[in-house]
Design a protein that fits this description.
Layout: E1 4-7, H1 17-32, E2 36-39, H2 53-64, E3 70-71, H3 87-99, E4 103-106, H4 110-119, H5 141-149, E5 155-158, E6 165-170, E7 174-179, E8 187-189, H6 197-207, E9 212-216, H7 223-233, E10 241-245, E11 248-249, H8 261-265, H9 293-301, H10 316-322, E12 333-334, H11 337-350, H12 353-367, H13 373-383, H14 392-395, H15 398-401, H16 409-415, H17 418-432, H18 439-452, H19 457-469, H20 477-484, H21 486-500
Parallel strand pairs: 1-2, 2-3, 9-10, 11-12
Antiparallel strand pairs: 4-5, 5-8, 6-7
Helix pairs in contact: 1-10, 9-11, 12-13, 17-21, 18-20, 19-21
The chain binds one RNA strand of 75 nucleotides through strand 7, strand 8, strand 12, helix 11 and helix 19.
Length: 501
RNA sequence: GGUCCGUUCGUCUAGGGGUUAGGACACGUCCCUUUCACGGAUGAAACACGGGUUCGAUUCCCGUACGGACUACCA
């Protein structure tokens, strides 16, 4: 049987990186096994629906390069893949479950349940209390019929009887046991006719012939209910294998990484930017922060999973080769932004200039800079060894695109004196007279000239750097000069004369 | 509170009954470099605790502590 896995996010806003990681692991397993990766949108809670969220999820998968083979907006013959479009399917199956005696109607209103919770500590709707509540198990058939005829709102609940051990064989955690006496009678179909996660998930996983469920650890406690549902439908034979992923934790402090942590720690926790009319709701994603998707995927893959050995850098293809669910860790992994930055830096260093040019282009364009390939490739080669983010090419290396805005005057003053100044003046003319402006030649030539003038190369070279970049940080002086060209180089040298003198 | 899950350097982790417990990030020092980086070398840094089992436990078992998830007509 071929592997079929699904990523089933809820379109309630931005997808955070924990979700992206879940998608990635599903993708890796599917690709490794020659299986199918499916995207299903779980939008059964209409109160939490956020416009644009589904699109955001899909764009995020595109960005990361982990495209579904099947699913919402990707086609397939087991659709629709959006749960709100499958509403009738769920009510049909819920009714079937009632007929089979595995579920029942409950008429208790939310207010009544709240009252019970207020009155009884740890109130749980389960086998021990349902007899005294309002449902088709406690009421007489006539009463139930009457309530239905009167149009009384109802939900359908899973009938969980106590006294049984449910053993789940989790690929990551081994066997996990739950006693049904501690389980509640979960709502399967809500009063608005929409299913809850539990029902929709099991019905869809069955109908879509899912073989492996890889999802977050937050679902482990309800997995026993899910097993009971498969049994209630008589689907145990094709029940998928479960794997519950450890959570991604906050960089510092307690608890799992939350969407708010992005702002709190000044780092992205989402793949893409999220635009909004409300300024406070806008967020910067890894994309906008200047991360390469390949770097992000590598980082994410290793957050909670690691193959044997010491290798850290893996291409997507390599990840597909070596991935294994069994090697996923059991404990939560703290989100380490420093490590994420290191991966990005490594990927930028390793990328070829043409690839980088394409990544730099949007940033250059936004600043109104030159965006032709040759120029951007040159910027890439000059800066790639010294940047962390893609945005750094235009931020830190702005002086390659436009004139120096600001000089490190402390440094200029430290190096400048009348004697040096006069050597510098003659150097400008010497540079202006050069007919070969290639870096290697220029370096040899200029250094020779400086020495012939009886000056220390160190002093002059520092001023040259300051003239070209304004700062002590940056590429090799003669590489910059060659890249800038003779006319611009001479102009910048003259500018420094006026600034310093 | 209850249920379930977890615990190797600060962080991500490899390992596994007998090891100088390995790597990476971050950090310190040095080298390379007339800048900043890159790169190289090196240093500090861990098996939560207590009982077992065993000739021998960091590794297996049980407790304790601590951390986490869940405990909605949310997913």
């Amino acid at each position: 049987m071929s592997v079929r896995v699904r990523f089933a996010p809820s379109p309630t806003g931005t997808l955070h990186i924990g979700g992206l990681r879940t998608a990635l692991y599903n993708y890796l397993l599917a690709k490794q096994k020659g299986g199918t990766f499916i995207l299903r949108i779980e939008d059964t809670d209409r109160t939490r629906y956020v416009a644009g969220a589904e699109d955001y999820i899909i764009r995020s998968l595109h960005w990361a390069g982990i495209l579904p083979d099947e699913g919402q907006s990707f086609g397939g013959d087991k659709g629709p893949y959006r749960q709100s479009d499958r509403k009738e399917i769920y009510s049909k199956y819920a009714a079937e479950l009632v007929e089979r005696g595995a579920a029942y109607y409950a008429f208790d209103t939310p207010e009544e349940l709240d009252a019970h919770r207020a009155a009884t500590e740890n109130f749980t709707y389960n086998h021990s209390v349902r007899g005294s509540l309002s449902n088709s198990l406690s009421l007489s058939p006539d009463q139930v019929t009457a309530k239905m005829a009167a149009g009384t709102a109802y939900v359908i609940r899973l009938k969980v009887d106590g006294g049984e051990e449910i053993v789940i064989n989790d690929l990551i955690r081994g066997s996990v046991t739950f006693n049904t006496s501690e389980l509640d009678d979960k709502v399967l179909l809500k009063a608005d006719g929409m299913p809850t996660y539990h029902l929709a998930n099991i019905v869809d996983d069955h109908l879509m012939e899912i073989t492996h469920v890889i999802r977050g650890e937050e679902w482990l406690p309800s997995t026993a209910h899910h097993v009971l549902l498969y049994r209630g439908f008589g689907w145990e034979g094709t029940m998928p294998v479960f794997s519950h992923l450890p959570l991604i934790l906050k960089p510092v402090g307690n608890g799992k990484l939350s969407k708010r942590d992005g702002a709190k720690f000044g780092m992205p926790v989402f793949p893409l930017n999220w635009d909004s009319e409300v300024p406070e709701e806008r967020v910067t994603g890894f994309d906008g922060a200047g991360f390469m998707p390949e770097a992000m995927v590598n980082f994410l893959a290793l957050l909670g999973w690691h193959p044997s050995g010491d290798q850290e850098i893996f291409s997507l293809d390599e990840l597909i080769q070596v991935f294994s669910i069994e090697q996923i860790g059991k404990s939560g992994a703290r989100f380490d932004y420093e490590k994420a930055k290191w991966f990005n830096q490594k990927y930028i260093q390793a990328a070829d200039n043409l690839t980088l040019a394409a990544y730099i282009r949007p940033y250059a364009k936004a600043k109104g800079y030159r965006t032709d390939d040759n120029f951007l490739q040159m910027v890439a080669s000059l800066m790639k060894e010294r940047v962390t983010f893609l945005s750094d090419f235009v931020e830190q290396g702005y002086y390659i695109f436009e004139p120096v805005r600001e000089y490190d005057m402390d440094m200029v003053q430290k190096k400048w004196n009348p004697a040096i100044g006069s050597v510098f003046a003659t150097l400008i003319e010497y540079v202006e007279g050069q007919d070969n402006f290639e870096a290697v030649y220029l370096e040899e030539s200029v250094k020779g000239f400086i020495q012939s003038q009886g000056a220390k190369p160190g002093d002059i070279l520092t001023l040259l750097r300051l003239a070209l970049a304004g700062t002590m940080k940056g590429p090799a002086v003669f590489d910059m000069a060659a890249a800038l060209g003779q006319a611009e180089t001479v102009a910048r040298l003259r500018k420094l004369m006026s600034v310093a003198g």
